[in-house]
Write a structure and sequence with these properties.
Keywords: DNA-binding, Transcription, Transcription regulation. The chain has 318 residues and is α/β, with parallel strands linked by helices. The protein is 40% helix and 21% strand. The relative contact order is 0.14.
């Protein structure tokens, strides 16, 4: 298919500058290229658009009519391209974000009003899920997840680091005592996950040896938020991400346990997205905003309280 718009632009430029050679110099091409493009136009239209001499060109009657319409079309194309180029750098359009539930509740929701105020032309569509996400199936532009990349075709930018902490409510510890060593957890009610079974293998370091300890209890759930609420309620001991429980630790609703045996392992919260040669501004500015606002999150190491003696009541909840 012929490049009609390109031929029209060459025709308009030649008429405006008065010769093929002048148009060629302006466009840094050869005069013959301009002449051939105009010739193709005339052949396709079946009319002569220009009268040619060795030094100049002149519009025919048909060429005059065609030139005015071409000039309008070329100007409209130029204006359209200027508009698109300007909008390319202005974040706009629908932005689909998927986040794990605890991150959305504690970190995204508080800052999203500021994001939308800063970028009023963005329409944000937020969904939450704690399941492993497929960006294509979910139609998400950005996923905020607690894990490194599993798919090498995706890109990820780390937002902040966190660690998981073994915690319990003061009420639970008053009734059942405080574990002094990881092995003591076998006598306690540990709140566990029913989907991510690997999260029920709690890592520790003792006497220079790293190991994981399977935990058990009378309650399992698929979401960390559920375990968090029941830990605060005093049902048992849980191992939770510190960004979920910072306020509870500060206010004394939960206390950290076995910190002397913590492996000091950290994980990252990532913004995951498809790599694109021309990244839409709405995706780029959202990821930058997350890092701007949440990248300052401080990983605080809690202080474990003095251990209390166990009560004579059996520790394990049947």
């Amino acid at each position: 298919m012929a490049d009609k718009s390109g031929e029209m632009e060459l025709f308009v430029r030649a008429v405006a500058l008065g010769s093929f050679s002048s148009a060629a110099r302006a466009l840094t091409i050869t005069p013959s290229a301009v002449s051939k493009a105009v010739g193709r136009l005339e052949d396709r239209l079946g009319v002569q658009l220009l009268d040619r001499s060795t030094r100049s060109i002149r519009l025919t009657a048909e060429g005059q009519v065609y030139y005015l319409d071409c000039l309008r079309i070329v100007n409209e194309i130029d204006e359209l391209e200027r508009t698109l180029l300007a909008r390319r750098n202005v974040p706009h359009g629908r932005l689909r974000v998927n986040s794990s539930v605890p991150i959305a509740r504690r970190h995204l929701l508080p800052i999203l009003p500021e994001f939308l105020a800063r970028y009023p032309e963005i329409e944000l569509d937020l969904s939450t899920s704690d399941e492993v996400l497929d960006l294509i199936e979910s139609s998400a532009d950005v996923a905020v997840r607690i894990s490194p990349l599993q798919n090498s075709s995706l890109r990820a930018r780390k937002i902040f680091d966190f660690r998981r902490i073994v915690v319990a409510a003061p009420d639970y510890l008053a009734r059942h005592g405080m574990p002094a060593r990881p092995a003591d957890l076998s006598a306690h009610n540990c709140l566990a996950f029913n989907l991510k079974m690997s999260l029920n293998e709690w890592p520790f370091i003792e006497d220079g040896r790293s190991f994981t300890l399977p935990v058990q209890g009378n309650f399992r759930a698929d979401k960390g938020d559920t375990l968090h609420e029941l830990a605060v309620a005093g049902l048992g001991i849980a191992r939770l991400a510190n960004f979920m429980i910072d306020d509870d630790l500060r206010d004394g609703r939960l206390v950290p346990l076995l910190e002397d045996f913590h492996p000091n392992d950290t994980m990252g919260v990532y913004a995951v997205f498809f790599p694109q040669k021309h990244m839409p501004a709405r995706i780029r500015c959202f990821v930058d905003f997350l890092i701007e606002k949440l990248g300052r999150y401080t990983l605080r190491v809690p202080q474990e309280p003095a251990r209390r003696p166990a009560s004579p009541v059996a520790h394990r909840v049947a």
